[in-house]
From TrEMBL:
Residues 131-419 form the NADH:quinone oxidoreductase/Mrp antiporter transmembrane domain. This is NAD(P)H-quinone oxidoreductase chain 4, chloroplastic. PANTHER family: NAD(P)H-QUINONE OXIDOREDUCTASE CHAIN 4, CHLOROPLASTIC, NADH-UBIQUINONE OXIDOREDUCTASE CHAIN 4. GO terms for molecular function: NADH dehydrogenase (ubiquinone) activity; NADH dehydrogenase activity; oxidoreductase activity, acting on NAD(P)H, quinone or similar compound as acceptor; ubiquinone binding. It is found in: Plastid, Chloroplast thylakoid membrane. Its main location: plastid. Pfam families: Proton_antipo_M. The gene is ndhD. InterPro entries: NADH_Q_OxRdtase_chain4, NADH_Q_OxRdtase_chainM/4, NADH_UbQ_OxRdtase, ND/Mrp_TM. It comes from Premna microphylla. Its EC number is 7.1.1.-. It catalyses: a plastoquinone + NADH + (n+1) H(+)(in) = a plastoquinol + NAD(+) + n H(+)(out); a plastoquinone + NADPH + (n+1) H(+)(in) = a plastoquinol + NADP(+) + n H(+)(out).
C-alpha cells in the first residue's frame, strides 16, 4: 500500500478547485480563465510527477493502490489504483482538458459555471480511469453525464436542447445496463458481496451468466464508444456543442467506452469475450465502412468529422476483438492517437466557424487564401487522420492490421475478408477528408465576397494546435513511447485467454 494518497489528490483536486471558482472576485472573465488554465496545468504536472517517480513501467500489477472504507453497509470502498492501461488515458485526459480550457477562451457567458463543468468532467474522467471498485467506476461514469448535458444545452448551437436530450437519453440508457451488471456481479460474488476488481478478476461464473453480464456491460460501453447502431447521438451532439466541449467529447469521452471494454469485458469475462470476439470483428469492419461512407454524405462540417470519429473507433473494436498482443496494443495506441487528432480537428472546425459563420461545406470555398495558417493545420491533421505514414494514426492502424492477421483464433478466410473490408475503409477515409478540404479551402467562393475580411489564427490557437501536433508526430515516429506503457499489462490480460 502506498502511504501518500497521490491518486486521491489527483482525482479530487480538479472538482475541488472547480468549486472555488464561485468564490473568486467579480473581475470579469479573465481571472476565471487564468485560474482554470493554471489549475489544469498544475493537475497535469502533478499527474506527470506521480507517474514519473512513483510508477514502475515493468511491473504489470496494480500500483499506487489506495483503499478507504466508504459505506460499511454495502462494503463500498474508495479504491484507486493504476496500471499500464490507465496511464495513457489519464495523461491524455490531462493534456486535452488543459488545451480545451485554453480553447474555451472566447466563452464569456456564465463563464464560472462553464469552467466549473470542465473541471468536474476532468475529475470524473481521471476517477474512471483509476478506479478499482466497480461501484466507484459506475459513479465516475455517471459523474460525466451532467456536465456534458449542461455544456451542450447551454453553450451549444441552434438545436442544442435536442442534441443534449438525445445524448442524455442514450448514455443514461446505457448506464442502466452498467448499473444492473455492477449489482449483479457484486451480489453474485463469494459469500459476502464484493465489488473489488482484484477479487472479481479471479472469479469464474457459469457460462450463461457470464454471457448475460458481458452483454449488459457491452451495451453500456457500446453507447459511449459508440458502436453502430448506438452511435446516432454522437453526430448530433458534436454538431451542436461548443468546440471546446467537442474536444473533450472526441478526445476523452469516446475513449471511456473502449477503456471499459478492455478493463471490464476482457479482464472479468474472458470466456464470454472469446465467444463474442468474432462478432466484434464483424461489427468493427462494418462500422469502418458505414461511418466512412456516411461521412461522405454529410454537408455539415462538424458532422462529417464526427462520422470520421465513428469510423476510426472501428479499428479499436477490431483490435479488442482480435485477442492478440499486437491487436490490443494497436487498439490502445489508436485510443491515444485519435484522442489527439479528433480533438484538433474539432477545434479547427470550431475556430473556422467563428471566423466565417458558415456550417455547410457547399457554402464554403477559397478559405485557404485569406487564412493560410488554418489551411496548413487543417490539412496536416486531416493527413494524420487518414493515416499518413509518419503520423500516429498510421502506426495504430497498422498494428491493428498485424494483430488481426497474426491472430490464431480465426480462419485465414475470415481474416482476409475483414482485412479487405478494413482496406476499403482506409480508401474511403482519404475520399471524405480530401473532399472536405477541397470544398472548404480551394476555389474562390468566399474570396469573391466583397466585404469579407478574415483574420488568420492567432498565437493562442497556433500554440494549441502545435501542442497537439507534436505528440501526433512523436508517436508516429516513435510509437514505443506509448506502447511501452501497456505492454506488460496486455500480456497479463491475454494470458487468461490462452492458458485456461
Amino acid at each position: 500500500m502506498n502511504h501518500f494518497p497521490w491518486l486521491t489528490i489527483i482525482v479530487v483536486l480538479p472538482i475541488f478547485v472547480g468549486c472555488l471558482i464561485f468564490f473568486l472576485p467579480h473581475r470579469g472573465n479573465r481571472v476565471i480563465r487564468w485560474y482554470t488554465i493554471c489549475m489544469c496545468i498544475l493537475e497535469l504536472l502533478l499527474t506527470t510527477y506521480t507517474f514519473c517517480y512513483h510508477f514502475k513501467l515493468d511491473d504489470p500489477l496494480i500500483q499506487l493502490m489506495e483503499d478507504y472504507k466508504w459505506i460499511h453497509f454495502l462494503d463500498f470502498h474508495w479504491r484507486l489504483g493504476i496500471d499500464g492501461l490507465s496511464v495513457g488515458p489519464i495523461l491524455l485526459t490531462g493534456f486535452i482538458t488543459t488545451l480545451a480550457t485554453l480553447a474555451a477562451w472566447p466563452v464569456t457567458r456564465d463563464s464560472r459555471l462553464f469552467h466549473f463543468l470542465m473541471l468536474a468532467m476532468y475529475s470524473g474522467q481521471i476517477g474512471l480511469f483509476s478506479s478499482r471498485d466497480l461501484l466507484l467506476f459506475f459513479l465516475m461514469w455517471e459523474l460525466e453525464l451532467i456536465p456534458v448535458y449542461l455544456l451542450v444545452s447551454m453553450w451549444g448551437g441552434k438545436k442544442r436542447l435536442y442534441s443534449a436530450t438525445k445524448f442524455i437519453l442514450y448514455t443514461a440508457g446505457g448506464s442502466v445496463f452498467l448499473l444492473m451488471g455492477v449489482l449483479g456481479i457484486g451480489l453474485y460474488g463469494s459469500t459476502e458481496p464484493t465489488l473489488n476488481f482484484e477479487i472479481l478478476a479471479n472469479q469464474s461464473y457459469p457460462a450463461a451468466l457470464e454471457i448475460i453480464f458481458y452483454i449488459g456491460f457491452f451495451l453500456a460501453f457500446a453507447v459511449k464508444l459508440p458502436i453502430i447502431p448506438l452511435h446516432t447521438w454522437l453526430p448530433d451532439t458534436h454538431g451542436e456543442a461548443h468546440y471546446s466541449t467537442c474536444m473533450l467529447l472526441a478526445g476523452i469521452l469516446l475513449k471511456m467506452g473502449a477503456y471499459g471494454l478492455v478493463r471490464i469485458n476482457m479482464e472479468l469475462f474472458p470466456h464470454a469475450h472469446s465467444i463474442f470476439s468474432p462478432w466484434l470483428m464483424i461489427v468493427g469492419a462494418m462500422q469502418i465502412i458505414y461511418a466512412a461512407s456516411t461521412s461522405l454524405g454529410q454537408r455539415n462540417l462538424k458532422k462529417r468529422i464526427a462520422y470520421s470519429s465513428v469510423s476510426h473507433m472501428g479499428f479499436i473494436i477490431i483490435g479488442i476483438g482480435s485477442i492478440t498482443d499486437m491487436g490490443l496494443n494497436g487498439a490502445l495506441l489508436q485510443i491515444i492517437s485519435h484522442g489527439f487528432i479528433g480533438a484538433a480537428l474539432f477545434f479547427l472546425a470550431g475556430t473556422t466557424y467563428d471566423r466565417i459563420r458558415l456550417v455547410y461545406l457547399d457554402e464554403m470555398g477559397g478559405i485557404a487564401i485569406p487564412m493560410p495558417k488554418i489551411f496548413t493545420m487543417f490539412s496536416s491533421f486531416s493527413m494524420a487522420s487518414l493515416a499518413l505514414p509518419g503520423m500516429s494514426g498510421f502506426v495504430a492502424e497498422l498494428i491493428v492490421f498485424f494483430g488481426l492477421i497474426t491472430s490464431p483464433k480465426y480462419l485465414l478466410m475470415t481474416k482476409l475478408l475483414i482485412t479487405f473490408v478494413m482496406a476499403i475503409g482506409m480508401i474511403l477515409t482519404p475520399i471524405y477528408l480530401l473532399s472536405m478540404l477541397r470544398q472548404m479551402f480551394y476555389g474562390y467562393k468566399i474570396f469573391n465576397d466583397p466585404n469579407s475580411y478574415f483574420f488568420d489564427s492567432g498565437p493562442r490557437e497556433l500554440f494549441l494546435l502545435i501542442s497537439i501536433f507534436l505528440p501526433v508526430l512523436g508517436i508516429g515516429m516513435y510509437p514505443d513511447f506509448v506502447l511501452s506503457l501497456a505492454v506488460e499489462r496486455v500480456e497479463v490480460i491475454l494470458s487468461k485467454f490462452f492458458y485456461e
